[in-house]
Amino acid sequence: MITAERKPLEEIIDYVKPFKRILLLGCNECVTVCAAGGRKEVGLLASGLQMAMLKAGSSIEIREHTLERQCDPEYVEELVPMIDGADAILSMACGCGVQQLAMRFKDKPVFPAVNTKFMGGSQRQGVWDERCQGCGDCLLGITGGICPIARCAKQLMNGPCGGSCDGKCEIGEDVECAWHLIWERLKALGLQDRYLEIMPAKDWRPAGGAGPRKIIREDLAE
Amino acid sequence: MSFSKRLTAHEFVVLAEMHTPKGVNITGLVNDARRIKGRIDAVVVPDMDNGIMRMSALAGGVLMQQQGIEAIIHIYCRDRNRMALQGDLLAAHVLGIRNVMVTHSEEMSQGDHREAKEVFDLNEVELVRTVGELCGGQDLSGFELDGSPDFTVGCTVAPYADEAALAGELQAAADKVAAGAKFVITPPVFDLDHFQSFLAQAKGLGVPVIPTVFLLKSLAIAQYIARSEPGAKISEELVRRIRKSSDREAEGLKIAGETVAALRDMAQGVMLQTLGWEHKLPIILDHAGL
After folding, report:
1. Are A175 and A160 in contact (CB under 8 A)?
2. How many angstroms separate the CA atoms of B108 and B30, rounded?
3. A197: left (phi > 0), else alpha (psi -120 to 50), else beta?
4. What is the CATH number of the domain that holds A56?
5. Is the pLDDT confidence value at B111 over 90?
6. What is the pLDDT of residues B224-248, one digit of tens each?
7. What cofactors does the UniProt entry give for this protein (chain B) (predicted)?
8. Proportion of chain B above pLDDT 70, given as a percent
9. Are B154 and B185 in contact (CB under 8 A)?
10. Are B115 and A205 in contact (CB under 8 A)?
11. Is B109 in Cβ contact with A211 (below 8 Å)?
12. How does pLDDT run across B120-150, given as a tens digit for each residue?
């Protein structure tokens, strides 16, 4: 999923303070799972904003709503009846959702209330780790299901850098060395031969090196 | 008098662009440079900013300095992060280079190493500022340098398609001047009247504006630019002149020389761009009366 963290309240206030009526929008997908921008967080932020504005001797009218998916134009259409009642939109979705709103409602300022962080997975309650950088040319089949692009600080492609110690990365004791993990996993699977294969310099075009990426499925596209 | 001093003294400067080889054979580069030594004020050495892997501008600039020719080297943001850029700038000073030009760079997908990763750790404005920081004795993290470099830094106005794009490019140039750029190189000039109006707008930049004079090596090139780059303002008349010439190559050289001569009364310098025909530079200078 795409992970996110809420922006500091002060930054959000700076965005919305010129406006009287705000449409505050959550998303029921990834940002709900990572507790950054779902229905619950929308309620908390609305209260926080109201209180902060009152304390500053001002007031703000906030309408709360949470869409099934903000990155999907079909769900964004739900907002049409509400949009005239808002001076600006504050989105708690990832950057994809924010941009979908900005494209659909061209005459409304749209502000992000979260910082979109990475594609990751939940490790335990309240902890998410980066797992994928969307490089467009998945190597997990060669690297034992552990990604050196997302999980090695140097994005090395042919083994560790020499800075790891006891399976930990030199950048911090809480960061696992991706190549240590890869080696251990390949060994456990009896696939050590794959480790010995030299991977050529990576083609970064599928990772976005040739500009913004797009997927067109001819069988689905209208 | 050095390039920098000539700029400050409002003297006309003549620059010539010379590309480094794709390989280690420097014979052509050095010979071409020697042919124009004393007739130009500095050689501008592009790096790989056009997307073609070649010998670095730093080495090319040092070669020019070794020939007793002042060098201006390109620096840009696509291939190096702030560490590499700063390190190379310190190296450039130590090796005798005193002028750098912050340039735009072609997208990697348009070059000859399309699989490579782009960097863009800094942008052009930040890179101009970085040069100033180093000259002021500090690196970008605020650490004090043991000996500061000394550079005259310039920048470019990128080619533009229309007036709206020009306004954007001039604003970008103004940002770079505010960050410390001391001269600006323009896109190629083919129409002097248009350049006059460009110059009127660019005067607000407050630094010397140096037009590029591009050698039209063939009719096909002139037609291609006329068709694909409306902002270049290549007129029908200019294309016709090359087409009707019995020696189109010579005509292109003559046009370049005439343009340089005309610009002597309009701008504070010219930069000759011959893209692989650097051996023809003496002929252009002859036509220009330089």
Report:
1. no
2. 28
3. beta
4. 3.40.50.2300
5. yes
6. 999 998 889 999 999 999 999 999 9
7. FAD
8. 100
9. yes
10. yes
11. yes
12. 999 999 999 999 999 999 999 999 999 999 9
A99 and A149 inside one domain: no
pLDDT at B159 over 90: no
Same domain, A79 and A7: yes
Residue A124 maps to a domain:
no
CA distance linking residue B126 with residue B106, whole number of Å: 18
The answer to whether B117 contacts A203, with C-beta atoms less than 8 Å apart, is no
Do β-strands A127-132 and A114-124 pair in parallel, antiparallel, or remain unpaired? antiparallel
Q: Do B115 and A207 touch (CB under 8 A)?
A: no
Pick from B78, B40, B74, B37: which is nearest to B57 by CA? B74
> Residue B160: what pLDDT?
86
**Minimum Cα–Cα distance from B110: chain A residue:** A210
Query: A48 and A91 share a domain?
Result: yes
Sign of CA dihedral A153, A155, A159, A161: negative
* A190 and A161 in a common domain: yes
Is residue B162 over pLDDT 90? no
Contact call for residues A143 and A150 (beta carbons, < 8 A)? no
Are both A58 and A106 inside the same structural domain? yes
Q: Going from the N-terminus, what domains does chain B have, and what CATH number goes with each?
A: 3-216+260-279 (3.20.20.220)
Interface ipTM above 0.90: no
A90 and A27 in a common domain? yes
Q: In chain B, what residues touch A202 (CB-CB under 8 Å)?
A: 115, 117
Which of A199, A202, A205, A214 is the best mutation test for B, with the most CBs of B within 10 A? A205
Arithmetic mean of pLDDT, A102-113: 98
Alpha helices in chain B (DSSP H): 3-8, 27-36, 57-66, 82-94, 124-135, 163-178, 192-202, 219-228, 236-244, 248-263, 281-288
Q: Are B108 and B53 in contact (CB under 8 A)?
A: no
* β-strand partners of B269: B13
Type and span of the H or E element at B187: strand B183-188
For chain A, what is the domain count?
2
Task: Please name every residue paired with B152 in a beta bridge, in sequence order, or none if there are none.
Answer: B99
**Domain range enclosing A197:** 133-207
* Same domain assignment for residues A195 and A157: yes
Contact across the interface for A204 and B116, Cβ inside 8 Å: yes
Using an 8 Å Cβ cutoff, are B46 and B74 in contact? yes
Q: Are residues A112 and A179 in the same domain?
A: no
Q: DSSP of A75-101, one letter per residue? A: HHGGGHHHHTT-SEEEE-S-HHHHHHH
Burial of A214 (0-12, 13-18, 19+ CB in 10 A): exposed
